Amino acid sequence: MVHTFPMQQICANAWCKQSFESTDEDLAFYRKISPTFAGETFAIPPPTQCFSCRQARRLAYRNERHLYHRSCDLTRKDILSIYSPDKPTKVYEHSAWWSDKWDPLSYGRDFDFSRPFFEQFFELQTAVPRINVNNMDCENSDFCNFSVQNRNCYLLFGALENQDSFYSNRILYCKDCCDCSGIEKCELCYECNDSQRCYQCRDLQNCSHCTDCQLGYNLHSCKNCFGCVNLQNASFCIENVAYSEQEYKELLEKKLSSYEQERKNFQQRKLSAPRKYMDAINTEHCTGNAIINSKNALDCYEVMDLEDCRYLANATFMRDAYDTTHDDHSELVYEAIGSETNFMHLFCDICWYDRELLYCSMCFNSQNLFGCCGMRKSKYCILNKQYSKEEYEKLVAKIIKYMQETGEWGEFFPVCFSPFAYNETLAQEHSPLSKDAVEERGWNWKDEEDDMPDVEKVIEGSRLPADIAAIPDDILNWAIRCEVTQRPFRIMKQELAFYRKFHIPVPHLHPDERHRRRMVLRNPRKLWDRQCGKCSKEIRTSYAPERPEIVYCEDCYLKEVY
């Protein structure tokens, strides 16, 4: 059959019905990754859901920030887990999961051709033990998740090789940082977003190689700047005006005395400065936002070092990948989340160092698996049952033909089979829904209540002194009630030392509320057509047409700013 491209489609979800397209390049990719079993190639069909719905479906399988106390189902020790105690999931602490005290093959089962595949996989996933948190090779950093090689860290999520940092997500190679998101190789930074190689900075966004800067947007190689936007190689500037060093210090002292008001003023000042239609560095033929060192990366967001990819987010060093979120160092990937260093990896969740896996979850150092969960150093298994290579090829071919008939082939795992409630996952962060909407769709919701900490006293956030010098050591024994959410939270000893070192007030907001506010600063993962604010050229951007920012095409932006 010959298609006329692009092929227009309507999202299959009844609550969406959004129009989207599959281009000839998209279909060429689906052909490229279509697997062959027993001498027969099984075509990956075009997606039936729009990009937003596909992303939400994957993100519904990733709980980053919700941690619970429960017991290990093997050792009975008290552990921290991303799976709450009320869930049917079997959970082992990290060391027990990796031990030889249990065998994933013992959960193996035959495929039942009278029942849907997803239903059978859900039963297997519920029975096979899960790792309590994804926290590897860390030191004194137990309260972290999707975290690798961190030291003395607390509540880091999606973090790699950090030290003495806390309350942050997607940070890499950082030291002494707090309340940051999407930063790399930074030190002594507070409330910084999407920035690289910054030192002793506060409240920056989209900045790089900056030192001693505060309240900045799109600053590069700047030092001692306050309230500035769109500057390069600048120093001793306040609100984009250059001063002598002595003048700067005197004026800065006045600004710092009313910092919260200056923060509000800065949010308004940002609206008066032009922005480039896409935040990108060293890119060729790319669309989306927050893209670095990439080529042919379309509809991608918060990514780095991609080539020939589309519909990726929070991914690095990827080649030939579509519809992938939170993945790194992989090639030939489609509809996957939370994975690392894979090749030919389709419809998988939290699988690392694998080759040729289809429809698997939490499998490591394995190859040629179909519908498996919890496998380690394994090959030629289906639903955790061992087969010879020939048996594997024949049975997988038969299963795929069956899934083509049931309409399951080519679809990611349904949201209703996620081991998490929708509002526990990143799906709620990027595609928020009400409890009623979630339950109407047949998905799970979890009503949550914070346990009040066992403390000497509870203080309202609004009653905290603005001057950190007025905060007593006893605050470590108090609970603070968030001004916005009313949720209680506590201050750690090393956290208090950080605030005192930089003369920062103790926060009045719960860490989750602070995270939510950082995420609001980012553009959505969606593109709109609008006109350049200067030359009226048509541009495709993550700034919706009705937003108040001044958005320029690349040529106009470069002329204005540089």
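the 2nd protein, sequnce then structure:
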Amino acid sequence: MIYTPDTHRRLRAEQGIGDLWELEADVCIIGSGAGGAVAAAELSRAGWKVVLIEEGSHFIGQFNNDEFAMQVRLYRDAGWVLSENQTLSILQGRTLGGSTTVNWQTSLYPPDYVTNEWRDRFGLSGYGRDEASGEFVEEVHQRLGVRLVPDHLVNRNNRILLEGGRRLGLHPHRLRNNNAGKCVGLGRCGLGCPINAKQSTFLTWIPDAVQAGAIVAPNMRAESIEDGDVKTVHAVFTPDPFAETPPGVIQEMRIHAPVVVVSAGALEGPALLQRSGLGNDWVGRNLKVHPTSQILARFDYEVDMWHGPPQSIMIEDGHNQEGTGYGFWLEVSPLRPSLTAAAMPLLGDRAIEELRDYRKLSAGICLVRDGADGETAGRVSWSGGKRKIEYTMTPTDARNMLRGLKMLAEVQAAAGAKELIFPFFDMEEPLPVTPESNFDWILSKSTATNTFGVFSAHPHGSIQAADNSARGAINPDFELYGHRNIFVMDACWIPTGLSVNPQITTMSAALRAARKLASQKGERLLDSA
């Protein structure tokens, strides 16, 4: 059952629970996104007694078009997770289903150049397309209904990338989305799909887990994990900021279980382990984010970039340099008014003037696969009672961003843009352009910190997996080095940057790891006897 705050009074009456709910399980899973939900379903079906806790709320039939309210309710820090030096903002879901509830559906196969690097650098074998993990990826694709975006749903925002790219001789291609063919192009993915077309985990693996007997408790934040033969997870109630807290809610949970699965994301996961005194020096290190920057382009017609599937076209011509897989790729972003205003480097009356033409704006984005120079200058730490994020782009990654912004500007100009608003903080006016404009000057722009805007929606890598503890925090089975029966199963294990939304990789890896763990039920639970 899913125990929402509205059901707490009944639960307390039936079971005599006070403000503290103390219970025993075979496994406690922390986080309900792409990793935690899959693990909960697999272990529940295998006969494990599962308790799944989630910091965010459970929303069914409550997704609406109120951009501000939905960001506050569905995203961590209302959508504005910031690095300590203000160089980076990160979008990350905080709701039942995690970021799968608010992502933009993009669902691609883990590329060979990434899985080969996992094998060669970190000893993580078996993840290639032609290896055993390929079967898990295909299973995930089937479960999510992944399919090519039909041509009639490619909106104007994406067609700008398609048409401009083709005119320049590039190779734009359509993307795959996870909606089982149910998408009608409402353009509300980032605010929660109101028609349940997007196959988030709260529609797929979480119902599977509940049907198999799992207890699911949203609005419960994991504060700490006590290690031992039987672990104890301490969690506290976290209210929905836009809903009145009903009387009689359970204020605390203590879950006693011999096995714990941490799936709290690449930001909260390492912070939880650190404040619990768990793990080695790799916990929180090598944070990767797929750094992203954008150019707003104004056209002489209405683009309505929020309308339709958010992302249906990609250009990868700047990717996979010299076969390394590093470089950049281009997509678009369906920015609604508040995010457009926040992302625009213009100020005051000039910004307001541009926002009056909001319906004619298109947001093109350049994503960089960070890590071209090796370990990143990114880190998550728990210090002074606060989770802190540090991130600075390395030199090669920053140069790749400039190369990508140059190509993006050329594509937008070729598609007929009349002016471009660049992310560079020293450019206080939009730049008028024509299809013949030259953008070589972008390559000479400074790559110093805080010279242009950078954001992210794909944090990962901060609890790195590797075949030994000298270069990773968890082993190839995702078990935390030095701590038996504590596992990490979400995007934070991915040691080198992907070139796609990491949900498919996370789900398929969690599926593989959870099935292996499920097969060891007797051995793992005997540890606590």
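Residues 326 and 465 are 20 Å apart (CA to CA). The two ends are 28 Å apart (CA to CA).
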